[in-house]
């Protein structure tokens, strides 16, 4: 009867409670059925591809810098008063001010009540209203279509056409991404397949940005290195591409070539002739081309110019333009904007097989959509104030000021580093980094090896512990055997950059003296 069931409840509950309490007691004693319970996920059961991933710009040296920063905050003493992080291209963290117009539009999109405020210019309000009309429920809090908000994709296509002086761009080939990294990972996922000698080979420049090597490790693809020519300002040599390709074909199937232009960490800007050669090579060898163009606004040397791979491909004629598969990437994180935290970016993908394109859309839909605030930021970048608009003057002033300061800092960095014995720095033609070659004396190399670390890691750790300067060892980016480098950003303010470079100079000289290599 009902009363029996009701009456039996406390004992059932009590029994469950007792079982739970005894189980809890056993677990807290660390034992269950008389044996220690082991964790399911251990270093032995962890996905081995995850273990293989390395990402130098946020690696052990940066963790150490964080520990030192904490130690100083808690009142600890060091021979320096602050840690200067020159390890990552994070402009705002280094004190760069946001572009006013970009923030105004994103603020209006985020909090539309501000549309009534007289503090916001009409050209910003008009853009924000247009973006919100493209969002579900007119809110930045809604999901967008997986490839991105349609009006933003159309703005990006218009921007590309204008940038490339009339080369057609179809908005349906544009996909918004969560920073450029997300797009790069997505395209690589489509490309990696096969087993053993038919496994996908991915050709990447050395030195490279470690996203590429990390993605290749994670996907268990084959990394195919082609070396940039340091003695020739990190130029890309076509003969080196053929050498790397032929050597790789013996053990994998190279299917894709990645290019970073302007270069990271190397700062070179590729010539049009060089790009033509790369595209011809890709056409001949049937390679998919991935062009990482996130630094396209960052060109400092007067006799260098940014050429997009797509524009050069178009100028090579229809046979090339209608057949070479090309994905180009851009981002809100670099350029003059430096809006890393918004995770805004896009890719344009041309000549992709229509059935594969459907698979790409499917893959993008799994991650739903990129952040809407990042999409809005990207829209302002491709649709900035025009000369007849109220905000044009201030926008243009801020943009020129950021890029002008970066050009000055690029020159300053190169000059100061080249004046130091045992350091050689190529011109920083573009991007945001210097990648100087450093001479490390044989005695220091031996000491590093005895400690089980790369010589440039040893050098950078010593630099950090003695000066508070955090840079990334060249070994994290790849370099020719027997050469040593470090990567540093040119983003700190000019005053801080001078201090940083002065400390590097003094440290390097005392390091050479210590290991008796200074004649």
TrEMBL record:
Keywords for this protein: Aminotransferase, Pyridoxal phosphate, Transferase
Needed cofactors: pyridoxal 5'-phosphate
GO cellular component: cytoplasm
Record keyword NAD present: no
Keyword field contains Transferase: yes
Location of the Aminotransferase class I/classII large domain: 138-502
Molecular function GO terms recorded: L-alanine:2-oxoglutarate aminotransferase activity; pyridoxal phosphate binding
Domain of life from the UniProt record: Eukaryota
UniProt cross-references to InterPro entries, sorted A to Z: ALAT1/2-like, Aminotransferase_I/II_large, PyrdxlP-dep_Trfase, PyrdxlP-dep_Trfase_major, PyrdxlP-dep_Trfase_small
Record field: catalytic activity: L-alanine + 2-oxoglutarate = pyruvate + L-glutamate
A Pfam family annotated for this UniProt entry: Aminotran_1_2
Protein's pathway: Amino-acid degradation; L-alanine degradation via transaminase pathway; pyruvate from L-alanine: step 1/1
Enzyme class: transferase
Family: Belongs to the class-I pyridoxal-phosphate-dependent aminotransferase family. Alanine aminotransferase subfamily.
Quaternary structure (record): Homodimer.
Biological role: Catalyzes the reversible transamination between alanine and 2-oxoglutarate to form pyruvate and glutamate.
Protein name per UniProt: alanine transaminase
Gene that this polypeptide is encoded by: LOC107701239
